[in-house]
C-alpha cells in the first residue's frame, strides 16, 4: 500500500498515465491560477463526458485522492496540490505536467510556491510568517483528531489536573489575579493578598460578609469593605454575582475541576478592545454590494460587530466595571469611492456607539493609491505559515479558518432580510447545506 500522496500519484501514473496527463493538461490550459476542490473534480467529470476512456481514472483510487484535495496552485508546467487525507493532516505534492514527475513538498515549500504564483519570484527575505507554536516547548498539545473544536476543554482539563496534583500550580493563577489591570486600574486583587493561604482566608471572610447582604445589593455599596479585604472591581456588579465568582475560586483552590475553572476564567474581565482587519474590496455600510472584491464578509462583519458591542457592554456591566469597550474595523481607504463612504478615514457603524471603521490608504512609490485594486495585486495572500515539523495542533488553525470562512459565506444575514450574499447577488437560492459535514 502506498504511504504518501506522492506514492499514490506515482501509482496512478503507472496505471493511467495518458488519462492523468489529459486531466492535468485541463488544469494548466488557462495558465496560472488557483483551483478549489470542486474545480478539480468538475474537470474530471467533464473529461469523462467527453472521453469514455477517462472513466478508468474516475473509477480508480485517484478519485478518492482528488476528493481529499482542497486547492491546487497552477503555475505551468507545475500543479501543486494541497491534500487533506484526514482531519488535522495535510500533504502537498507538485506535478510537472510535461514530464509527469511528482515531488513531495513540505509546508514551507508549498507556501513558497504559492508566493511565487503571486509575486513571480520567491526571493523576498522578509516574508510574513505566523507561527502558532506554544511559547513553552513542553506545553501539551492534542494528539487526536477528535480534539478538533475542543481545545478549551482540553486545556482546562490539563490545568485543573496540574492544580489538583500540585498546589504550587495555583501560584500562576494568583500572580495573574494580582497583576491584572486595565488602563492602569487594578482589578480583582490588590497588594493585601500576597499568597494562596491569604487568598483562601480572604475569600472565606468575603463570602461570609456577602451572605448577609441582599442579593441585588450594588457593588458600590460594599466596594470599600471588599477593598479592605484585598479585593478590587471585576468580581461582579451585585452581591450575588460577586459571591458566585468568589465561591468558584474557592472551589478551584480546594478541589480544581475543568468545568469550574472554565466558568471562573470566563468571568474574569479581559476583553475590552477588538480590532478586525478586512482589507478586501469596498468596506462600507451602503452601496457596496456588487463592487469588485466585495463579498459576504462585509455584511457578516457589520452584523456581528453590532451584536459583539452589545455583548461586551453587557458583560462589562455584569463584571461591575465602568469601562467603555471599543471595536475597530481596519480597512482600505479608497479616495475614488464610487459613491460609497470608503473615502472617509473614520466612520461610526450605524446602530452602535463604540464601533468604527478606520480606513488606511495603500501607498506606492508614487503616493496614495486612489482607485481600487484587487487584493492579489496589492499584496501576496497571507497564509498561516508553520514549521516543517509542525505539531498536530497547528493544523487545526487552518481547518478552523477554512471551514469557518466556508460556513460564514453560507449563513443568512438579518441585514439583507435573512438571505445570503449570493442570493442577493444572483437571485438564486444559495442555502443548500447538503455538503456540510460534522466531524
* First and last CA, distance: 26 Å
Percent of sequence in beta strands: 5-15%
What is the helix tally? 16
Weakly predicted, low-confidence segments: 379-397
Kindly provide the radius of gyration, computed on alpha-carbon positions and rounded to a whole number of angstroms. Answer: 27 Å
Structure class: alpha+beta
Order of helices and strands: HHEHHHEEEEHHHEEHHHHEHEEEEEHHH
- Determine the fraction of residues in helical runs and give it as a percent range: 40-55%
Biggest beta sheet attributes:
5 strands, antiparallel
Secondary structure tally: strands: 13
Indicate the overall shape.
extended
User: What strand order characterises the main sheet?
Assistant: 1-2-3-4-5
Q: Mean pLDDT score, rounded?
A: 81
Sum this structure up briefly.
The chain is of the alpha+beta class and 439 residues long.
Describe the structure.
This protein is an alpha+beta fold and 439 residues long. 43% of the residues lie in helices and 15% in strands. It is built from 16 helices and 13 strands. A five-stranded antiparallel sheet has the order 1-2-3-4-5, sandwiched between helices. It has a four-stranded mixed sheet with strand order 8-9-11-10. The protein has a two-stranded antiparallel ribbon with strand order 6-7. Strand 3 and strand 4 form a beta hairpin. The two termini are 26 Å apart.
Amino acid at each position: 500500500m502506498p504511504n504518501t500522496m506522492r506514492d499514490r500519484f506515482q501509482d496512478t501514473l503507472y496505471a493511467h498515465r495518458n488519462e492523468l496527463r489529459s486531466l492535468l493538461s485541463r488544469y494548466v490550459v488557462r495558465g496560472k491560477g488557483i483551483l478549489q476542490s470542486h474545480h478539480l473534480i468538475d474537470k474530471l467529470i467533464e473529461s469523462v463526458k467527453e472521453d469514455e476512456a477517462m472513466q478508468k481514472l474516475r473509477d480508480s483510487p485517484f478519485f478518492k485522492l482528488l476528493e481529499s484535495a482542497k486547492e491546487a496552485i497552477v503555475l505551468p508546467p507545475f500543479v501543486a496540490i494541497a491534500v487533506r487525507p484526514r482531519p488535522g493532516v495535510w500533504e502537498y505534492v507538485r506535478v510537472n505536467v510535461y514530464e509527469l514527475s511528482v515531488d513531495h513538498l513540505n509546508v514551507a515549500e508549498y507556501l513558497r510556491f504559492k508566493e511565487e504564483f503571486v509575486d513571480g519570484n520567491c526571493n523576498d527575505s522578509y516574508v510574513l510568517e505566523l507561527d502558532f507554536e506554544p511559547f513553552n516547548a513542553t506545553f501539551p498539545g492534542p494528539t487526536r483528531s477528535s480534539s478538533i473544536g475542543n481545545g478549551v476543554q482540553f486545556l482546562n482539563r490539563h490545568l485543573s489536573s496540574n492544580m489538583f496534583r500540585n498546589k504550587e500550580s495555583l501560584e500562576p493563577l494568583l500572580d495573574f489575579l494580582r497583576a491584572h489591570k486595565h488602563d492602569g486600574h487594578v482589578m480583582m486583587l490588590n497588594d493585601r493578598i500576597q499568597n494562596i493561604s491569604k487568598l483562601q482566608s480572604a475569600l472565606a471572610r468575603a463570602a461570609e460578609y456577602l451572605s448577609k447582604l441582599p442579593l441585588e445589593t450594588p457593588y458600590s455599596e460594599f466596594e470599600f469593605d471588599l477593598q479592605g479585604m484585598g479585593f478590587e472591581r471585576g468580581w461582579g456588579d451585585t452581591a450575588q454575582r460577586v459571591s458566585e465568582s468568589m465561591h468558584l475560586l474557592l472551589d478551584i483552590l480546594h478541589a480544581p475541576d475543568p468545568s469550574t475553572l472554565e466558568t471562573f476564567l470566563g468571568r474574569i474581565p479581559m476583553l475590552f478592545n477588538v480590532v478586525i482587519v478586512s482589507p478586501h474590496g469596498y468596506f462600507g455600510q451602503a452601496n457596496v454590494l456588487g463592487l469588485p472584491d466585495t463579498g459576504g464578509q462585509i455584511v457578516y462583519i457589520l452584523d456581528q460587530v453590532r451584536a459583539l458591542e452589545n455583548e461586551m457592554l453587557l458583560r462589562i456591566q455584569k463584571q461591575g466595571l465602568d469601562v467603555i469597550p471599543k471595536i475597530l474595523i481596519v480597512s482600505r481607504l479608497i479616495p475614488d469611492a464610487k459613491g460609497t463612504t470608503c473615502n472617509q478615514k473614520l466612520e461610526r457603524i450605524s446602530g452602535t456607539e463604540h464601533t468604527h471603521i478606520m480606513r488606511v490608504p495603500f501607498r506606492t512609490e508614487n503616493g496614495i493609491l486612489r482607485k481600487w485594486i484587487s487584493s492579489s495585486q496589492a499584496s501576496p495572500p497571507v497564509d498561516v505559515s508553520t514549521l516543517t515539523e509542525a505539531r498536530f495542533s497547528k493544523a487545526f488553525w487552518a481547518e478552523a479558518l477554512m471551514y469557518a470562512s466556508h460556513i460564514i459565506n453560507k449563513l443568512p444575514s438579518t441585514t439583507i432580510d435573512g438571505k445570503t450574499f449570493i442570493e442577493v447577488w444572483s437571485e438564486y437560492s444559495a442555502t443548500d447545506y447538503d455538503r456540510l459535514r460534522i466531524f
